[in-house]
Amino acid sequence: MIAPKIAAGFPRRIVCLTEETTETLYLLGEEARIAGISGFTTRPPQARRDKPKVSAFTSAKFDKILALHPDLVIGFSDLQSEIARELIHRGCNVIVFNQRSVEEILDTILTVARIVGAEARGLALVAGLRAGLDTIRAAAARFPRRPRVFFEEWHDPLISGIRWVDELLEIAGGQTLFPELRSCPDAKSRILDPRAVLERHPEVVIASWCGRKVNPETIRARAGWQNIRHVYEVKSTYILQPGPAALTDGVRQLHAILQTVVEQS
User: What is the DSSP string of 8-29?
Assistant: First the structure.
C-alpha cells in the first residue's frame, strides 16, 4: 500500500505512547506521521523495526520525545496521566484517550483518523471491523450453548477482564462470570478472591498476563481449581490493547477457544 501524501493542516510528527494508536495509523496508511512509539509495540512488526522507541506504559524518555519535535503525543488512560502532565508542562500537545468498551474503541479509531485528515479511510476501517465482529457474533449464535468463562487479566492479585474483553467474550460465544465488574475502569476494582470465581462455576479460564507467560498449571494449582479442564492463554498484545488487535485477532482467538470447548463437551 502506498502511503498517501501527508496533508498540511494536520499533525505531521506524532508520538504514540501505546501500541493501538500505532497500529491504527498503519492501518490508515498514515505511518509516515509516526515519529516515535512505545517500546512495548509489536503490531505491526515493521513499526518496532522502523520507529524510535521512546516510552514504556507508565514511564517515558521525555528528552528523547522532545528531540523528535512532535506536534502531537497520543496516550491512553489515567495510568499515563503523569506522562501527559509532564509533556504538557514541557510544551507538547497531548491527547489521552480513555476507551474501555468495544464502541469506545471504534469511536477512538475514527477520531484518530479525523485527527490526521483520513476520515474516509477511518470510516472504512471501522466498517470493516464491525463486519468482522458481526461474522464472529453470527458464528457464535450457532453454538448449542455458551460456556461459562472467567478471563483473568492478572494472577496475583487475581483481576478479572476489563470491559472490552468481557464484551468480546460475549461476541465470541461465551458467558462471562462477572458482568457487574465490567463497568469498573480501574483494575483495583476488579480484584477477586479465587474462591469467588469458583462459586460461579467456571468451565473455561482464559488468561492474559501482560509481560508474563501464562502457566496453566499455576492456575490449576489454586485451591479448588484443579478440576478446571479448559485453561488457555491469549497473549496481551492481541486482547489487552484497546484497538484493532483486540477487535480482530483477539476476538477470533477467543471464538476459536470457545468453539473447541463446545465441541469437546
Answer: TTS-SSEEESSHHHHHHHHHTT
Whether residue 208 lies inside any domain: the answer is: yes
Q: Is residue 127 part of a domain?
A: no
Phi, then psi, of 46 in degrees rounded to 5: -70, -25
pTM listed for this prediction: 0.94
SS3 132: helix
Q: Is the peptide bond before 44 cis (omega within 30 degrees of 0)?
A: yes
Chain segment 82-140, per-residue pLDDT in tens:
999 999 999 999 999 999 999 999 999 999 999 999 999 999 999 999 999 999 999 99
Instruction: Count how many domains the chain has.
Output: 2
CATH, residue 217? 3.40.50.1980
For 103, other C-beta atoms within 10 Å of its C-beta total: 12
CA 59, CA 130: separation in Å to the nearest integer? Answer: 33
pLDDT (tens digit, 9 = 90+) per residue, 209-262? 988 899 999 999 999 999 999 999 999 999 999 999 999 999 999 999 999 999
172: containing domain: 145-264
The closest of 120, 97, 191, 184 to 152, measured between CA atoms, is 191
